[in-house]
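Q: Here's a chain of 427 amino acids. Please give me its 3D structure as C-alpha cells.
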Amino acid sequence: MRIKNINFFILLIFFSQLTAMEITQRGTVIDIVSGHGIPAVNIISGDTGTTSDENGKFQITVPSGQEISISHIGYEPIKILATGQDFTVELQPLVLPGKEVFVSATRAVTGVTPVAFSTITTEEIRRRYTVEDVPMILAHEPGVTAYSESGNGTGYSYVTIRGFDQSRIAVMVDNVPLNDNESHQVYWVDHADILSDASDIQIQRGIGNSLYGSAAFGGSINVNTQIEHAMPQMQFKAGYGAYNTFKTSVKGASGPLLGNKLQLTGRYSQLESDGYRDYHNSSQKALFLAGQYKSGNWINQFRALIGYAQTNLAWWGVAAEDINDREKRRAGYQAYLDDFLQQIYSLNSIWRINNDISFSNVVYLVKGSGYYENDKSESFDLTADDDSSEVTKYSDFLYEYDLDQYLTGDSSQSMDFTRRKWIANSY
C-alpha cells in the first residue's frame, strides 16, 4: 500500500513537469488594415522578450500555455496564450491623443514656401539673448544688419533686411503689426525684454509670396510669444553689465495647474543703461500678460503687452576724424528726451471647422501716448544799426513758439527754454 502511494506521487510530479514544458512559439504580426507585417513589435512573456523582424515575424521560447503580450506604438496591444502552433496576429491601428498643432499660413515652410526665410528657435534665443533690443539678435541672420544709437544695443535700435529699413519691413508680434500707422517706423524701445516670451522668430527676406501685403516690401519679421507651458514655472532673473547696464525680470506660468483648457503666463521686466555713448541712457519697463483658453475646436489667446521707455536721443554720428579716438567716439551731446508709453491688446482666435478647413483671426488695439522734449536757445542783437533782419528773425522765432507777445524790439534778447511736443495715437 505504501509503494502505490509513492508511485502516484512520482506520476503527479511527472505530469506537472510536462505542463511546464517550454515551447518555441512562432508567429507573424501584421497591420489589420494594410495586411503588411509590422517590424519592431514588442513580444513579452514574463521575464522573456523579443521583437519582430522587418517582415513582422518573431519567435520566443516560453512555457506552454503562458500569456504573451504583443504591443507596438500606434496600435492597440493584445495578449495571446502560447500553444506551440504558428499563428498570425492582427493589430488594430490606434490614434494616439496629443496636443493639437495648428499650422498658420503666416509662417513659411521649408521646401514649400517660395521665399528666403530663417527661423530663430527658442534655444537660439536663449543662447544669444541677454538685454539687447530685438534688432541686435536678428543681426546674426543672413541678409540682416542692425545698429544701436546708444552703442550697446539698448534704447533706440534699428534693423535692415537686404538694405531695406524698418519702414519697408512688416514687423509683427503674434501677427499684430508694430509698424507705426503714419511713419511705418518701428520703435523697439517700447517693447523691452520681449524675447523673454518668444517661442520663435521668423524672418522672411524679400517680398516673395508674402501674406503681409505691400507693407512687407523689404521682408517681414514675426515674433511668436509663448503662453502654453508643459509645467508650472516661476523665474527671477537679474544681471549687470558694462556702462551701468542692468536688467531684472520676474516671470510666471500656470502650466496645467488650471486644467487642460486654461493657461496663464505673465512677466515684468526693467532695464536700465547709461549707453556706450554719452547722453544715450535709457530706462525701460515692460509688462506682459497672456492667457489661452481651449474649448472644442476653438483656441482663444489674449495678450497684453505694455511698455514704457524714457531715453535720451542723439542721432548724429561721429565725425570722420574722430572715428579712431575712443574717447571722442563715445562723446555725445544732450539733445532730445523721449518719454513714451505703448499698450498693445490682442485676441488671436483659431476655429478648426474640420480636418481640412480652419479659420484664424486677430483683433488688436494699440494705444500710445508720450512726448519728446529738447532745450531751445537763441540770441538776437536788436540794438545794431541795421537791426531789421534781427528784428524779423526775432519776431519769426517768437511766433513759431507762440511767444510773439513778448516782442519788445528795444534791446538784445536771449531766449532759453525747453520745448515739449506731445503725441497720442490709437489704432
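Q: Can you summarize the key feature?
A: DSSP finds five helices and 22 strands in the chain.
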